[in-house]
Amino acid sequence: EPEVTQTPSHQVTQMGQEVILRCVPISNHLYFYWYRQILGQKVEFLVSFYNNEISEKSEIFDDQFSVERPDGSNFTLKIRSTKLEDSAMYFCASKGTRGEQFFGPGTRLTVL
Amino acid sequence: KQEVTQIPAALSVPEGENLVLNCSFTDSAIYNLQWFRQDPGKGLTSLLLIQSSQREQTSGRLNASLDKSSGRSTLYIAASQPGDSATYLCAVRHTNAGKSTFGDGTTLTVKP
Fold it and tell me: What is the pLDDT of residue B16?
């Protein structure tokens, strides 16, 4: 069964460093998303991506963040100059035409 | 702004019981609603998707209903098992490409 994959599973970085979180969505899906979940809190929307451009973004998704689909399979989230409060679980999701959203296993980001 | 609330926050039941989890949302103009399961430290597993035009969906021991006009959805779990222990999340979407707004979840414990 097709699934969304994410790498790495855990990323530890120093405050101020840049990180890139990688995702491989389900191959025939056209809509891609990043969400995050701070420990003990709700899953929060960051950004949606369709047709090679951002279709919607939240207030959280400021200039520190960027997304890219560099080739036909990968979808990346870049966080520049990480802050302590960026520590969270980051989930990638993709959606097909039927509307069901599938999530990856997440990347746990720890900023020290 | 859409607000999604899930009641109860936590639920503990003995094995074999039938149970109902509740999800309410403030803006009834939704595109679809999706129920997920999340195990500790893990990603989100899709359980059921209900389109705005549908009243319910069933998968095995799970049945989800949707009442758009009252802003409510319920997830019914029949004959609960210890393996059902997890956090259950509901998420609503307003457009096909748009974001999902999540509730805080209900943490279910099924005791053997």
Answer: 97
- Backbone conformation region of residue B6, classed left if phi is above 0, alpha if psi is from -120 to 50, else beta: beta
Q: Are B75 and B64 in contact (CB under 8 A)?
A: yes
pLDDT of residue A96: 86
Selecting from B34, B44, B98 the residue whose C-beta is nearest the C-beta of A91 gives B44
Structure tokens at B43: 């990603």
Q: What is the mean pLDDT of residues A38-66?
A: 94
Mean pLDDT for chain B overall: 95
Core vs surface per residue B53-64: b (16+ CB within 10 A) or e: eeeebeeeebbb
| A28: Cβ contacts below 8 Å, ≥ 6 apart | A96
Q: Number of Cβ pairs closer than 8 Å across A and B?
A: 57
